[in-house]
């Protein structure tokens, strides 16, 4: 019985590790990108059990080989989001920069049906962000933030009852604030320009593409992420991209986004900062992201306490510097640019309802 159990676990771990390599943008393959830390844990425990329990025969060596491959694949993907990897975003050191400007951001998917408004307000009070970006905001959430909004000079709001509403508050001067529906008429994104007191400006793109599900393709999600990547590639100002991307930091889509956009991921070399699912400790992965251009260095990144949503709020502090020490990502290949173009063209030609628009009703 133990032989069969270990064999079944080995097969499941191996399949879960290799299925994301299938180059098809569909949820049945992409869904296994998410739980790589969990798959690594199960693979390692199963490997130890095989070594401890089974006799050294052909069956044993087959299981050890498959599990070793699984462990290697998972480590290959997640190790860059541990302190054992080099940091892509440089740590800001004030004594090395005379005219640096810092600002704080709080980004949170509030979960539309969550009504623990006071818990989020308490976190906002503690973090005191210069820019607040909320996702899944309906009109009830916007109304609940009225007291917070009074403290900020600038606001951009797009309340929706389909789990894709967005809301932004800023103390920094908002010189441009556009609400754009990039590839789907039901999924908004924010495109903002802020001005520091010294006159320098930077752009922010906030996006929340729809999540992958096993029975549908992920073209919409992947394409919207890559639209932001292409906009970043041809940027004219320093840029930050933030939001719930419904994708993990180590996926092929996010890695392609980094190469296309030439933006930096401050989690590399620091940690995963798993932001979802806040309700279940063993089922967590990094869904909420911030990426920045080389003009910024990292001051701080912290996950905030549970506030009733399935996402933890994420706090970021960046420094705008004149000279940086960042490690730039790889340049995109011809295939990266071709794949991005094909995904965007495919999604732009079709009409569809976003995934999960009735989940919170």
Automatic annotation (TrEMBL):
* Molecular functions (GO terms): catalytic activity
Membrane keyword on record: yes
- Looking at the UniProt entry, the stretches that span the membrane are 36-54, 61-86
Which Pfam families does the record associate with it? Exo_endo_phos
- Give the keywords, sorted: Membrane, Transmembrane, Transmembrane helix
Q: Which InterPro entries match?
A: Endo/exonu/phosph_ase_sf, Endo/exonuclease/phosphatase
Q: Where is the Endonuclease/exonuclease/phosphatase domain?
A: 112-311
Q: Enumerate the Gene3D superfamilies for this protein.
A: Endonuclease/exonuclease/phosphatase
Question: What name appears for this protein in its UniProt entry?
Answer: Endonuclease/exonuclease/phosphatase domain-containing protein
Give the species this sequence originates from. Answer: Kiloniella litopenaei
């Amino acid at each position: 019985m133990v032989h069969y159990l270990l064999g079944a676990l080995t097969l499941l771990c191996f399949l879960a590790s290799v299925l994301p390599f299938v180059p098809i943008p569909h949820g049945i393959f992409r869904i296994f990108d998410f739980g790589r830390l969990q798959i690594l844990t199960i693979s390692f425990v199963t490997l130890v059990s095989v070594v401890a329990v089974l006799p050294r025969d052909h069956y044993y060596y087959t299981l050890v080989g498959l599990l070793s491959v699984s462990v290697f694949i998972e480590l290959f993907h997640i190790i860059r989001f541990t302190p054992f990897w080099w940091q892509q975003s440089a740590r800001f050191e004030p004594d090395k920069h005379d005219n640096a400007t810092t600002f704080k951001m709080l980004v949170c998917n509030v979960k539309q049906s969550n009504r623990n408004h006071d818990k989020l307000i308490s976190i906002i009070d503690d973090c005191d962000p210069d820019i607040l970006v909320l996702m899944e905001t309906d009109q009830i959430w916007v109304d609940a933030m009225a007291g917070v909004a009074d403290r900020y000079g600038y606001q951009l709001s797009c309340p929706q009852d389909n789990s894709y509403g967005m809301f932004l508050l800023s103390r920094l001067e908002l010189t441009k604030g556009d609400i754009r529906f990039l590839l789907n008429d039901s999924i908004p994104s924010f495109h903002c320009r802020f001005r520091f007191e010294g006159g320098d400006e930077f752009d922010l793109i906030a996006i929340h593409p729809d999540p992958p599900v096993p029975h549908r393709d992920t073209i919409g999600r992947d394409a919207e992420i890559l639209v932001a990547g292409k906009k970043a590639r041809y940027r004219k100002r320093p840029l930050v991209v933030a939001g719930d991307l419904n994708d993990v930091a180590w996926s092929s889509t996010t890695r392609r986004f980094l190469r296309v956009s030439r933006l930096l991921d401050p989690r590399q070399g620091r940690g995963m900062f798993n932001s979802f699912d806040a309700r279940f400790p063993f089922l967590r992965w990094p869904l909420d992201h911030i990426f920045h251009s080389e003009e910024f260095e990292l001051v701080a990144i912290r996950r905030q306490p549970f506030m009733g949503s399935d996402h933890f709020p994420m706090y970021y502090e960046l420094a705008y510097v004149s000279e940086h020490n960042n490690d730039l990502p790889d340049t995109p290949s011809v295939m990266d640019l071709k794949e991005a173009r094909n995904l965007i063209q495919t999604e732009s030609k079709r009409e569809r309802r976003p995934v999960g628009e009735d989940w919170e009703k």
